[in-house]
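=== RUN LOG ===
request id: a7f3
mode: sequence -> structure
chains: 1
length: 526
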Amino acid sequence: MTPVSDRVMNLGNFLTQNARRLPDAPALIHGDDITTWAQIQARVGALAHALIHDHGLTKGDRVLVQSANCLQMLETMFACWRIGAVWVPANFRLSPDDLAYLAQSSGARAMFCGAQFPDHAAACARHIPAIIPIGASPLGPDHDALIARHMGRMPPEAAMTRDDPAWYFYTSGTTGRPKAAVLTHGQMAFVVTNHLCDLMPGTTEQDTSLVVAPLSHGAGIHALTQIARGVPTILPTGDRFDSAHLWALVERHRVSNVFTVPTILKLLVEAPSVARHDHSSLRYVIYAGAPMYRADQIRALDTLGPVLVQYFGLGEVTGNITVLPPAHHATDDAAMRIGTCGLARTGMQVQVQDDQGSELPPGQTGEIAVTGPAVFAGYHDNPDANAKAFRDGWFLTGDLGHMDEQGFLYLTGRSSDMFISGGSNIHPREIEEKLLTHPDLSEAVVLGTPDPVWGEAGLAVCVSRPGHTPDPQAVLDWLAPRIPGYKRPKRLILWDSLPKSAYGKITRPMIRQALIERGEWPQAPG
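=== RESULT ===
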């Protein structure tokens, strides 16, 4: 049967609903500045009118955004959606040249750019007809000036279908150029519903959410979920990560949920300030982006209580692959499925497949594939990438793992992380988990490096806990009885810290590059 209609809600209607139901309630809190839902709605309407009448934007046009987290950034999101334009946020830590690539590849017709990024604006000027500053700038009328000029105007919400693009979600680009995953209005409505169902059930306007990551990616999806329920969002002040400031905000605003990544959660839990502030209001501390090592899980649970929620997901599936709720977290190893990232998200189907696309039985390792309403519409203007990413309707994640008999998924690592030593496939995560049970180690990454005898051999790069300086060989000796000999790293190096991506993740390509720059990467045989 042919559907009678494929029209869906314009995502901008979430804001409209809140302005009607909760006009005077706080929507966004940034330091001492509080903006209500009615105020944001009025500002978004004025900005949307300006995009139409001052810059000639229409439905389907792309709008690039280069901005640190702020009220104005969220306003650009809803102004774009109101007129049917596509929001294209960039991680503000990208270089000007990297941003210029996004400007060109997205085909953006306008750009909002923080005044503190003049080099980024200059790099994009040849690709984008209109650049609108956020903050005072010689480039012309800024975001707030446009709003003041058009205040009182409210263009109607554009009619949208399920597959109309809403957001170009750029992948992090750890290998090759970033790709724009196309997120649509219908797909995102499912994602928001799923997040509320699986990650933070019972969320209402009585909750409060704290942002600790760039709104351009996962934190933006999380913020949209909060907006859907009228939850006020707290933006930290300052440009740097400050654990004491974040814990003070949790106490002051009775924060009930936080979205973050394991490396940031680890820093928050290990900070002395966690003991100085009341965090009993926390109901859900959601971590994603990478698996969390068992030792860090236990410490977080001991410190914060039963509030951890893990999800596994990629930008292409908008985080919606599996979930491990608080009831499945435990400090007692016997009471927890150690290493699992949880069960399939509501409405989603997950399989572990072989190279031909056949589902593998429980316990066998293969590539994780997913299908369901949260899967993106494909990569923008990239048919080759789309052909590689999909097989028989399944999105291929590039992650390896296995399932148990009950359907709990266990990640082994990225297919690109695996290395082969002496003919044996080695997945670094198992080794890293063991290393992090050593009392003197805080972080660990294992890579396969060229080796004249074995083809590849493991190299462990570790960070010790404050006040500890273990001997590398002693650590390898300690590891010896805990892991098969063929999996044991040949070398172990201690660094003061590990480089992290703009998203707070530890990535092997960055570690490899740092090893090369330090002259510690072995030469290939021959």
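=== NOTES ===
The CA atoms of residues 268 and 317 lie 27 Å apart.
The radius of gyration is 24 Å.
=== END ===
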